[in-house]
From TrEMBL, chains A, B:
It comes from Chelativorans intermedius. Pathway: Amino-acid biosynthesis; L-arginine biosynthesis; L-ornithine and N-acetyl-L-glutamate from L-glutamate and N(2)-acetyl-L-ornithine (cyclic): step 1/1; Amino-acid biosynthesis; L-arginine biosynthesis; N(2)-acetyl-L-ornithine from L-glutamate: step 1/4. One of its GO terms (molecular function) is L-glutamate N-acetyltransferase activity, acting on acetyl-L-ornithine as donor. It is found in: Cytoplasm. It catalyses: N(2)-acetyl-L-ornithine + L-glutamate = N-acetyl-L-glutamate + L-ornithine; L-glutamate + acetyl-CoA = N-acetyl-L-glutamate + CoA + H(+). This is Arginine biosynthesis bifunctional protein ArgJ. Substrate binds at residues 158, 184, 195, 285, 408, 413. Keywords: Acyltransferase, Amino-acid biosynthesis, Arginine biosynthesis, Autocatalytic cleavage, Cytoplasm, Multifunctional enzyme, Transferase. Catalyzes two activities which are involved in the cyclic version of arginine biosynthesis: the synthesis of N-acetylglutamate from glutamate and acetyl-CoA as the acetyl donor, and of ornithine by transacetylation between N(2)-acetylornithine and glutamate. NCBIfam families: ArgJ (TIGR00120), PRK05388.1 (NF003802). The keyword Chaperone does not apply.
Length: 413, 413
């Protein structure tokens, strides 16, 4: 499972500030991996509000069901995340494991079980032995510290080749608030949500229903617009925690999503979510190129997104990109198979700024050398204009390489 | 592009009998390939009736549009197929090429242009120069012979590693009738229809509307139940020709699809279509294993088919099979992402006869060694029971190997 770090890994990482009201600890629980931390705890001060979005899989993991049940309460005191085992498709044993972990976490944090949140990522179908790590939670909560975001990002990795974390600031009223986020995910990444865990925390005083509205909206052009392999995980989890500590520095409490003071925060949050989502795509299993697919001129934005995803998920488009070939014929094929309104003789296709097809034919002026040179880049942009309406959408994916097959097929050999 | 022959190629081929009323010729037109035949003509005696089903792509090729326009006439005198160029996304030039080919073919066969049918397979977006081969048609019609089905199957190949042809017989009234079929296709294979061409001819006297009903029904559990890579071609064409010559041997003319005398013919046709479709899957690009996915206990057959396709198209399921790993967790994932009714705690999954999961958990009695031994076979059967209803469906696919990526990504290097 040891892969070289993705060539698309960030060249530099931000220094992560503290988020007042959040403390972090990690540990080596030996759940599956040896010699690395695989357990992470985030402890939140009293008053922390929470929102979340989860996988749409019909076969969700036990922790996803556990979180869904606690979410309506809107309060969080502790988050426990393990890597190495997804606690998915584990039946009664899975529910016993979440119950045992939640009880130990609540005891450790001195809080109600209704304020505990859990996430697990790793192998599906293997019972998670919570007994192996539940006894560690007491000590972890006791030694949890405000720093440690980088370690937290590392502890939740599975096939990721690099840790994913980002920070942002925004004005809220007269105060400056912090937003920190971590994410993991590399394969089984598809809308909606993918084998993706992401946890974002802020010190802004924002009420849970507002957080939920921000998050549900914000995932559409970020985590719901990325795909690595069209495979959706049983465990996808994105949560947003707000400790409210910035109120002490004069930040106003926001209880209405239409509050104009929320605008800069929303913008900063959306940018952070998009950047975290792109970090996941750029660590797509075997990825060597980031691919942005934009569809314009569709009948509707929904239609544009479906066509964009048909292109982004096409194995033939993705292998052509891996082969650095501007094979726009395969883009035509993918548009045609999407089942959405499209008229062949109105199609135009660009690779970067190079228009390769126009009005249903190869662009007579297009230079294959120029296109080939473009395809050697690390970031490829494909645009398709349908010429039918005003719908548009952008999604992101990566190329499909032999390494993807090796990572997902050779792991037993 | 030279690949070794698929390990799943047929061990032996049938000797193809003649179909009375059908004559065949092939030629080297040099459309793209050198040193091989790339043009095929089938000439039909007067009175031949025809039916067809075509790609559902919104960007169909020029020959598909041409055939669709002629099909309501129900009569066929000549079929012209070229490989090396799909004449797809070629705009006005594409329509000029079909018009020129059709005119030359009609002249050569001494028939109306409304009885000409065309198919092209190969590169998309490259103008097809019909002038390169239209002049050959006269000579080909003149020398066309009743035998030559094997050569015909070879002339229409693109990335196929072996020719695909089959024959069957059936009783029709007191007479025995022949059904011969050829097919091509290896990649861009997905429901519905895929980069797949298939031409089936019989001497049975069956009216065009009955042929159409038989074909539309017969493709559902055959060509519409296979997928190599979920990518649907712009050019998929399946046609069924009936010369009616068996009437001279006493076969009754069939004008009603409910005619009980049609039953053995329908059965033989359906078996032939299914076997041809499986030959396409077994030549899937890079394939080393044939995979049958059966879903039972679904709310409806439609729902069962969608779930079966979600499993068969999942890159993670397909790479696990390539890696000979009974990774049923990925099957659970694929069931979950299909968006169809499913209850995690009722799921059961088998690899062959080995039940690996039961009531939402790993089957406690399942032996990993036994499952691993099973996965080393050449033909893998996966069954999922949803425990919800009586809907069932079976689809076929192949594994996803590094060779698939090499074939589709390395072709320029």
């Amino acid at each position: 499972m040891s892969q070289a770090v993705s060539p698309l890994a960030p060249k530099r990482y931000p220094r992560m500030p503290d988020v007042e009201g959040v403390r972090i600890a990690t540990a080596e629980a030996g759940i599956k991996y040896r010699g690395r931390r695989d357990l992470m705890v985030m402890v939140f001060d009293e008053g922390t509000e929470v929102s979340g979005v989860f996988t749409r899989s019909r076969c969700p993991s036990a922790p996803v069901e556990f979180c869904r049940a606690n979410l309506p309460g809107g309060r969080a005191r502790i988050l426990v995340v393990n890597s190495g085992n997804a606690n998915a498709f584990t039946g009664r044993k899975g529910r016993e494991a979440t119950a045992m972990t939640a009880a130990a976490a609540a005891r450790a944090a001195g809080a109600s079980e209704s304020t505990v949140f859990l996430a697990s990522t790793g192998v599906i179908g293997e019972p998670l032995e919570a007994g192996k790590f539940a006894h560690l939670l007491d000590g972890m909560v006791a030694r949890a510290m405000p720093h440690g975001w980088e370690e937290a990002a590392r502890a939740i990795m599975t096939t990721d080749t690099y840790p994913k974390y980002l920070t942002a600031t925004a004005r809220l009223g007269e105060a400056e608030v912090v937003i920190n986020g971590i994410a993991k995910g590399a394969g089984m990444i598809a809308p909606d949500m993918a084998t993706m865990l992401s946890f974002v925390a802020t010190d802004a005083p924002i009420a849970a229903p507002v957080l939920q509205a921000l998050l549900s909206r914000g995932t559409q052009p970020s985590f719901n617009a990325i795909t690595v392999d069209s495979d959706t995980s049983t465990s996808d989890t994105l949560m947003l925690f707000a400790t409210g500590k910035a109120a002490q520095r004069g930040a106003p409490r926001i209880t209405d999503v239409r509050d104009p003071r929320l605008v800069p925060f929303r913008r900063a949050l959306n940018r952070l979510l998009k950047q975290l989502a792109l970090q996941v795509v750029r660590d797509g299993e075997g990825a060597r190129k980031q691919v942005e697919v934009t569809v314009t001129g569709a009948k509707s934005s929904r239609s544009a997104k479906r066509i964009a995803l048909a292109i982004a998920n096409s194995p033939l488009v993705k292998t052509a990109i891996a082969g650095e070939d501007a094979n726009w014929g395969r883009v035509v094929m993918a548009v045609g198979k999407a089942g959405e309104p499209a008229e062949r003789d109105r199609l135009a296709i660009w690779f970067g700024d190079i228009r390769v097809a126009h009005e249903g034919e190869r662009d007579p002026d297009y230079s294959e050398e120029q296109a080939s040179a473009y395809m050697r880049r690390e970031e490829i942009a494909i645009r398709v204009d349908l010429g039918l309406g005003r719908g548009r959408a952008t999604v992101w994916t990566c190329d499909l390489t032999k390494e993807y097959v090796a990572i997902n097929g050779d792991y037993r050999s």
